[in-house]
Amino acid sequence: MVRNIMNNYDLLISSLDAFIRKYYANKLIRGTLVFLTCILLFILTVTVSEYFLYMPVWLRTVIAILFVAGGLAALVAWIIIPLTKMARLGKIISHEQAAVIIGQHFTDVSDKLLNILQLKKNTDTHASRELIEASIEQKAKQLVVVPVVSAIDLSKNKKYLPYLLPVLLAGVFMLVAAPNMFKDASARLLHPTKAFEQPAPFSFILNTRNLKATRNSDFTIEATTRGDVQPADLSVAIGDDIVPMTTKDNNLFNYTFRNVTGPVEFRLYAAGFYSQPYTLKVVQKPILKSFAISLDYPAYTGKPDEKVSSLGDMTVPVGTSVKWEFVAEHTDKVAIRLGNGAEQVLAKEGNTWSLQYRFMADTGYTLILSNKKVSVTDTFNYLVKVIPDEHPVLQLQEYRDSVSGKQVLLNGNAGDDYGVSRVLFHYSITNQQNKELKKESQPLNITPGALTAFQHYFDIEAMDLQPGQKLSYYIEAWDNDGVHGSKA
User: Fold this and answer.
1) CA 243 → CA 52, 196, 254, 413, distances in Å?
2) Residues 43-81: pLDDT tens digits?
3) How many CB atoms lie within 10 A of CB 28?
4) What's residue 3's pLDDT?
5) What are the two backbone dihedrals, phi and then psi, of residue 362, each rounded to the nearest 5 degrees?
6) What is the pLDDT of residues 201-226, one digit of tens each?
7) Structure pTM?
């Protein structure tokens, strides 16, 4: 008999446990529907408001805080807590509280359930255990057939669907009909601390593409607008300052940043609207820091090689080899254009660029410094004037004896910028048909130098000229480079 009584009571307790689970399942369903309705309504309201109103930063920040805090609180209260109660985690309603709730649906059951539960608690302490168990058996047998779980009707949660479905359908409609509304608004709402300006009824067009200015130089930008509505003026907003642009042409404006030394952030402004932010970057133009020019003079000049300490025009003897060595900063390439020729890129070793060239004629050259970050190049124009190696200059005087005229004395001097190396006496004898019969050269004694004197005596009779034969002679001077001049 005890076993049957305990079975009836256990069945009753199982029914109460099932009722408690359904009680929290009902709360979970109701909480989920309410949570979804509130969240969707909140998202739709905020999205539409942001899309059309461009809410200020402080309001979007407040909304973000409310969404996170309120959403988490509602999620915990309406969904997470009922889920944990269904898993019997934490404190849940007691069997007595369940009995009271069941009594609201089955009015004649509540008191009997409470009575059974109270009697069960007293079985361990009451002396008349058999009497109490008999009473429990009688009451439990009557109640075990009562469907206590049906005291909770889950279908009643359908009353929340009329609130959820319109909001859900409105969201779907907006996603299909105006997808940009969610895209644009959500992009701004996800950055609550960033300021966004309401778009203008026209578009700002910055025609200047490469926003890179050379340091310490001026930089001009050109802009215009496009759209059905055109503003009369256009300005540049730099920080809190708004500076009007200059009208260049019909709906075309420009502005010049003076002596740019660092990056400049600016926006275009017109009719109360701002463009997206732009940044004018600064790049350093090439700088020639130092240089050395070596002059390798040709040997015939007798001049020692030297280095020039100034970069400028030069005058050098023909054949002089010039070597340039430049040290430059913020420079990717150094080139020289000689005359009308093509650029010759200087070889680089470390931070030094060098090139060597031998000048044979007057030549102008252009030194070009450039880097990849700036389109402006630094150029220097110079001229190298070449002194040609002229023929030695001769002065000659002839003296003959006054009687026969056959003894001849030649006196003279020879001069050259870079020195006379030798002087020769040449003579030849030809017949009446101008056929050369004899030819001879004799070196004269001189002291080599830029200017040297010479003297030569000869006797025409001693040359044994025959009738019809003719004597011709001349003096020839040579310089150190083998260039010569003559005097008859």
Assistant:
1) 29, 21, 11, 81
2) 999 999 888 888 888 998 999 999 999 999 999 999 999
3) 19
4) 42
5) -55, 130
6) 889 999 998 898 888 889 999 999 99
7) 0.48
